[in-house]
Amino acid sequence: MPFERIYVLGTCGSGKSYLARELSEILGIKHYDLDDIFWERKFGKKRDKKERLKLFRKLCNKKKWIVEGAYSVWIDYGIKKSDLVIVLDTKIPVSLWRIIKRTIKREKSKKLGKDRYNESWQDLIGLIKAVLKYKKKKGYGRGYHKQREIIKKHNAEFIHIKNKRQLKCFLKELEKLQNIH
Q1: pLDDT for 108-142, tens place per residue?
Q2: Which of 11, 55, 107, 138 could cysteine-pair with 134, CB 3.0–4.6 Å?
Q3: Residue 105 lies in a domain
Q4: Residue-by-residue DSSP string for 142-178
């Protein structure tokens, strides 16, 4: 398989985790969530900047990986090391609906003692702000444009997926290719 290091980018609620899990299952490559590197305890305590950069570089130096995460300020090394970058360009209302739905689901799980995330309703407001700022061209939150600049800088192979139909077609084609090999 020509792609052994795949980077999945997009805003909150774009489907990065879903796609990373699907790719992992199809390709048999372990996937990693950058939240696990950024947070010492999910959505509770942040790791030290030097420590998370060290963990990220160690991960990116592995032979095979699928990484998903939207931390534009420190992803340069990962994109440089990747064979393929997948940009999920989900429409804002879709991303907002997904993060709201996810927060409600996690709150219900928390009440049952089953949720492993320490995400709060206050965190939802931060996620909503991040989604709304993701495509801004200037200032804080311009993740989309920053990510595209990094992809261009490294001349990285990338796929731009804009909707669920394109995502399903991509996964179906990938499965076909895997079955041939």
Answers
A1: 776 766 655 566 778 889 889 989 988 887 766 67
A2: 11
A3: no
A4: -HHHHHHHHHHHTT--EEEE-SHHHHHHHHHHHHHHH
